[in-house]
Specification:
By secondary structure, the chain is α/β, with parallel strands linked by helices. It contains 9 helices and 10 strands. Bound molecules: adenosine-5'-diphosphate (2 copies). This is ABC transporter domain-containing protein.
């Protein structure tokens, strides 16, 4: 569960102070597909970046699974971030790496001693030698990448480079990469805004499938009403730095 309490974000320039988020309160429950909708400049991007502390709130707090992450030190925060996947409008893939290497990246950067295998008890892993651990991590990474390639239906593109893929395929890879560490939350920052409507639909269908199969909580910010209408069960509307409405999707859309 993600809880945002009395969150305010202001930017102080030399002369002026701009309030980008004003006293935001939000509760996102486990398994939700939560849409945050609003016009350009409303504060959506800043809000979603506060959820993993890419942006630090000026006041107020962000709680994930009961932990207040607002003032964590760097090390604890990086641990929490492994539990939060993020995808962007611009995909942010590594262009020099193949699809499978891109997906594996999030796992490869985890140190051997911090790795948590999915198919082995953690104590059993801890009791292995360094070289055995390295082997387990390698095998698990390979298995995870195959599993994700299947989910995103791009098994035939494992060895391709991002430049050879369409926008929709790139976003699929970005989704797989974000899911590699089994996060409990997936943050999507205008994830479909660069895509045409057909491709948008297929990405939304994929996100919905992933939500149903893995129960990952999904937060989507977008300026596109059709995106939230299509898949979100909960919606918050943000306007000029404030949440002006939030609730179940049918309730919120009744008024629009
Ligand atoms: P949205 O994602 O809804 O388009 P943003 O969160 O990107 O909105 O931006 C909200 C407002 O905050 C905008 O008016 C933007 O200009 C302002 N803003 C964003 N980042 C900064 C910054 N670093 N300094 C000053 N103002 C900023
Ligand atoms: P915008 O409001 O236009 O999205 P931002 O300042 O939020 O501007 O970010 C600019 C771009 O940088 C984003 O589109 C995002 O793709 C990328 N970006 C920001 N933070 C990260 C990050 N931690 N890792 C990868 N890419 C990032």
């Amino acid at each position: 569960m993600i809880k945002i309490k009395n969150l305010t974000k202001t930017y102080q320039n030399k002369k002026t102070k701009t309030t980008v988020l004003n006293n935001i309160n939000l509760e996102i429950e486990d398994g939700d597909i939560f849409g945050i909708i609003g016009m350009s400049g409303a504060g959506k991007s800043t809000l979603i970046r506060c959820m993993n502390l890419l942006e630090k709130p000026t006041s107020g707090s962000v709680h994930i699974d009961g932990i207040n992450i607002t003032n964590l030190d760097r090390k604890s925060l990086s641990k929490v971030r492994k539990n939060i996947g993020m995808i962007f409008q611009g995909f942010n893939l590594l262009m020099q790496k193949t699809v499978e290497k891109n997906i594996a990246f999030g796992l490869e950067i985890i140190r051997i001693k911090d790795f948590v295998p999915e198919n082995m008890k953690i104590n059993e892993y801890k009791s292995l030698s360094y070289l055995e651990k390295r082997k387990v991590k390698k095998v698990e990474t390979k298995r995870k990448v195959s599993e994700l390639l299947k989910i995103i239906d791009l098994e035939d593109k494992a060895k391709a480079y991002p430049s050879m893929l369409s926008g929709g395929q790139r976003q699929r890879v970005a989704i797989a990469r974000a899911l590699a560490t089994n996060p409990s939350v997936l943050l999507c920052d205008e994830a479909t805004s660069a895509l045409d409507s057909m491709t948008t639909k297929s990405i939304l269908t994929l996100l919905k499938k992933i939500n149903e199969e893995t129960k990952v909580t999904i937060v989507i910010i977008t300026h596109e009403m059709n995106v939230v209408k299509e898949i979100c069960n909960k919606v918050a509307v943000i306007d000029q730095s404030e949440i002006i409405e939030q609730g179940s999707a049918p309730d919120v859309f009744k008024n629009h």
